[in-house]
Amino acid sequence: MELQPASEMAKVAEENFEKFKQIILESDEFESLKIGIKEAANDGQKTLLCNTSDQRVFKILKDELVKAGYRVNEVLFNQHIMQITW
C-alpha cells in the first residue's frame, strides 16, 4: 500500500468530519439537548449540565450552541461534561 499525500488525507478527514457533524446534528443526543434546554428554561433555570459521548461530539455541540448565543464551559476536563448558560 502506497502512502497517500498528507494533503489528500486532510481532505478525506475534513469530508468525513462534515458527514459526522451532520449525523450528530440530526441525532437523538442533539434533540435531547435541545429539549433539556427548553425544559430547564421552562423551570426558570438559566443553566444546564450536559454529558456528551466524546470530544468530537462535545466540540460540534459546543460550536452549535455558541452560534446560537449560548455560553458553554467544559466542567470537568476530558470528561465531556459541558455547562450551558443562557
Q: In which order are the strands of the major sheet placed?
A: 1-3-2
Query: Number of helical segments?
Result: 3
Helix and strand composition category: alpha+beta
Approximate helicity band: 55-70%
Low-confidence spans: pLDDT under 50, at least 5 residues? none
Radius of gyration: 16 Å
- What kind of oligomer do you see? single chain
Number of strands: 3
Shape designation: elongated
Order of helices and strands: HHEHEE
Main sheet makeup: 3 strands, antiparallel
The chain-level mean pLDDT equals 94
Distance between the termini: 51 Å
Proportion of strand residues: 15-25%
Descriptors:
alpha+beta; three-stranded antiparallel sheet; 3 strands; 86 residues
What are the SSEs and their pairings?
Blueprint: H1 6-25, H2 28-42, E1 47-51, H3 55-67, E2 71-76, E3 81-85
Antiparallel strand pairs: 1-3, 2-3
Structure, described:
- With 86 residues, the protein is of the alpha+beta class.
- It has helices spanning 6-25, 28-42, 55-67; strands at residues 47-51, 71-76, 81-85.
- Strands 1-3-2 form a three-stranded antiparallel beta sheet, covered by helices on one side.
- The longest helix has 20 residues, at 6-25.
- The model has no long low-confidence stretch (mean pLDDT 94).
